[in-house]
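re: ur question from the group chat, yeah i did fold both. here u go
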Amino acid sequence: MLARTAADNFRVMPYNLRVLAVLGLWSNRSKLYRLYVLLVFTFVVIIIPKPVRISDRHPFESIVRSVSELIFAALCYLTIIIMAIKSEPFRQVILQLEQALMQFRHTDDQCSRLIEQVNTSIHRFSVGYIKLHLCYIVLFNVAPPAYNFPHYFTQWTLPLENRTVEFMLPLMQDLYGLDIRHNIGHYAVSWIAITPACVFCTLIMWSRGTLFMLIRYNTLLYQLVNSLLEKFGCEAPRMMLWRKHHRLQRIVELHHCAIECTKLLDSCLSLILLIQCVGCLLLLCLILFYVSRNPNLNVINVGVLFASIFIEMMCFSSLGNQLTEENAAISNSAFNCRWYNEPIVVRKYFIRIILQAHRKATITAGRFYNVNIVTFAQLIKTSYTYYMIMKEMF
């Protein structure tokens, strides 16, 4: 499904779309019922039997962990639901990107090589992202039973009154009255039920990686505009006026397409990123507090949640920052073409390009603030500040 062919070099994440098609998020929407069935299954297994459980030894820390897991589950659910609701705008973005890239399919120049290079790097990122989430599954679902079963059978050799085993759980929950903390049979049933739900949540987390890739493809369009302007600057002294007119018309259209894709992508991602940023702020704060209070094996599972949300926000911020910088660089590329020495018909094209480049192209979170490296650093700083307040208060 993730195999890459030569025809995929000028297409937009074809291997990822094949996976999304299985869930009904791409191509045939009649298959969307599969996504809803899986969402209901995970809701029944993870969300409904998940109380804010208070343990005797660490009452407040137990609440913190339960709330953290609920926030993380809510982020997964809301993201995939919004993607399903806005599947048509996402489809429009992908089609516009593919139409722009197809213009370079039959050429052998710097632009076509850049497209192939970016597509190759995106494919490698996608495969690496899969491997990372497979590690998440191992740590989250395999590590607890790998510890619990040997520990239980070690305790089995002791007298009944000396057995103090309490199983380490991947999630803080009570599964419909089962004694999953002390009964080995109930724990096994719980683990068998939770594992498929966690695998599906991991699939949702991986599917969010397609959002990173769409931002990267949008950035690629701005890079192509820069590349075409650099090529124009080198060849302009030897070109006829009609050829300059044709070249610049193509550059303006490509730049306009890139800006329209950014606007459309921002309308699709705005709510997702707002939820992601708020959830990240709360989640990082709560997880830091829990880890600082509970130096035990449960930190492994909580650390998986921390790593996942941190890496996602870092990717969104880095790619959003790159997109803004590439659009801003178009203005410098245009000035380097010495357009002011050209006839007025050529200068009009450059003025339009420069004016478009001065309009900041960015991805926002709910239209409140831009998603970039600066705001990501502020988010981490704010999370740490809230953590320090919680640490002092509790």
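okk and heres the other one u asked abt
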Amino acid sequence: MITLTRKKKESSSNSIADSTKRISIREFLLVKEVQELEQNLPSTCKISFQDPNVLSDFTLVISPNEGFWQGGRFKFSIHVPEEYNMAPPKVKCLTKLWHPNISVEGDICLSLLRLNSIDGLGWAPTRRLKDVIWGLNSLFTDLLNFDDPLNIEAAEQYSKDKDKFQAKVREYVSAYARR
């Protein structure tokens, strides 16, 4: 895993002529947060980095062990923008699934991923990557509020006929989210 000291050395050796070049706030925060995150992940989550030197792009896999999506393996891409921590990470679900808060195209409705949220639970500079991971994980366990769903058809099916909803979820898990 990359460390801040190593990152600083790389930065200074790459820019001896440019002594004003410094590690970005994002990089500084990511080194600390990723180390903390790797120690405090929910048991149903796993993160991986395509390039261990690039902490701003990684993959999250959630494998729920209970609920409607149990037995599935759901992959998310997470990109942390340069404006982090003033702006939230960009998250996309790469696994096709049937969920009221995740569109079939992979867009996600989760308050803490919004810069401005009407419920007051949106992104704030005090939030961290672990909040995002735990929030995404909760989408598979906490079916409490579908007042503002992204997938309206799934939300309506859930409220009208939970058995049909569960059958469709199982169909999607079997087709797209096998472990």
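fwiw on the second one: The longest helix spans residues 25-39. Residues 4 and 31 are 6 Å apart (CA to CA). idk if thats what u expected
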